[in-house]
Structure formats: structure tokens, C-alpha cells
Amino acid sequence: FGTETSSNKDRSDGINVDDVDVQSSRTPHPPRSLLALPPLARFLNAYLTGLNELRRCLLPGAFPSIRLAHNKLIADAKMALQANERAALTPGLRGEATKLREAAAKMKAEFDKCVEPYLKNTLEVALGSFDYAMAEADKARIEAEKKAALLAAEKARVAAEERAKAEAEEIASRRKAEAETAAAEAAMKMMTTEEQGNSNEEMKATD
Asked: Of 119, 18, 130, 128, whose CA–CA distance to 76 is shortest?
């Protein structure tokens, strides 16, 4: 399907994911973020190797079955990642529990964000639907940009609300302090007036 995986790095003009090179000018390059997640990288390598074998005996009539098998594989992988995340979140987990939980959550998110759309695109390229794969990639990119814009807008809204809340609290605190100061000054003035009144009465009584 225009791409092959190979461990022969001298022949490869693609990039390497977990010691497997991807050669193609048409197949999208594997996400480099997977280099930090070896289990997902190995999963991707196995998938690409399977596609390379599949192209040797690819028949058009097999496309529907292949797509169904692909969807089942994706569903099974998601279930495995969810089970892994639940296991990592088990209370009482010892050792590097925090790192395990972070890794489990990151793998699940990375699979949904990068691996699943990449596998779908490479499958369509393997089946000869290159235009479809590129259209899907553009659609995914646009959706990602929209989500990023919405996220940025939400962050800006939250930041604006926090600033407004902080300003309101500062104004309320300042007004409270001013009110307390005014009340203290009024009390002092009243005490001074009373003391003056008492002093005058004492002077009159002395006279």
C-alpha cells in the first residue's frame, strides 16, 4: 500500500518508532509523541507490520471485513486501556502508584487523540483510499483546532472570572476596612465627646 515497515535503517527514509522504520511519501508519519509511550509504539508497529503483510494478498472484496476487524481491534484496545487505567486507580496500590496512574491516563488520552485516527488513516491508505485518508486527516486537524480554540476560550473565560472575583473581593475587603476605620473613628469621637461632657460637668460641680 505504498509503505513498508522494516528494521533495516539503511534503506529507510521515514522515521523510526520503537526500532521500526516507516517508509512512505503518502502514509502519514507516526506521531512522535508515541516515542515516550513504548506500549503504544509497539502496538502501532504491530499494526503497521500487519498492514504490510495484508497488502501482499489484498482483495477488494475483503475491504468491508477488514474495516470491521479494524473497528473491533480499536474497541478492544480501548477496553484494555480503560481496564489498565482502572487497575492503576485501585486504592492501596503501592510502589510508583502516582507514575503508573499518570502513565495509564496519558496512554488512554494519547490513543484517542493520536493513535486511533492515525491507524484509521493508514488503513485507508493501505486500501487505496488515499484521498479519503487525507480528507479524514484534515477533518481531524480542523476538529482538533476547534477544540483547542474552545479550550483556550474556556481558559480565558475562567481567568477573567477569577480576575473579576479577585477584584470584587479586593473591593469588598477595602470597603470593609474603610467601614471599620470609620466606625472606629466615630467611636473615638463619641468617647472624646463623652469625656469632654463629663469634664464640663465635673468643673460645674466644683464651681
From this structure: 119
Q: So what's the pLDDT on residue 1?
A: 34
The string over 8-35, giving b where at least 16 C-beta atoms fall within 10 Å of a residue's C-beta and e elsewhere, is eeeebebeebbebbbbbeebbebbeebe
The secondary structure element, H or E, covering residue 16 is strand 15-17
Q: Which of 122, 101, 120 is nearest to 112 (CA)?
A: 120
Closest CA to 121 of 70, 81, 79, 77: 70
DSSP of 124-177, one letter per residue?
Answer: HHHTT-HHHHHHHHHHHHHHHHHHHHHHHHHHHHHHHHHHHHHHHHHHHHHHHH
C-alpha cell of 148? 483547542
pLDDT digits (tens, 9 = 90+) for 79-135: 999 999 888 888 877 777 888 888 899 999 999 988 998 898 888 888 877 666 667
pTM for the structure as a whole: 0.51
Strands 20-23 and 15-17: antiparallel
Maximum pairwise Cα distance, the chain: 127
15-62 per-position pLDDT tens digit: 344 444 444 445 667 778 888 889 999 999 999 988 888 877 777 788
114: amino acid identity, one letter: C
- Report the alpha-carbon distance of residue 162 to residue 10 in Å, rounded: 56
Among 140, 151, 123, smallest CA distance to 62 is for: 123
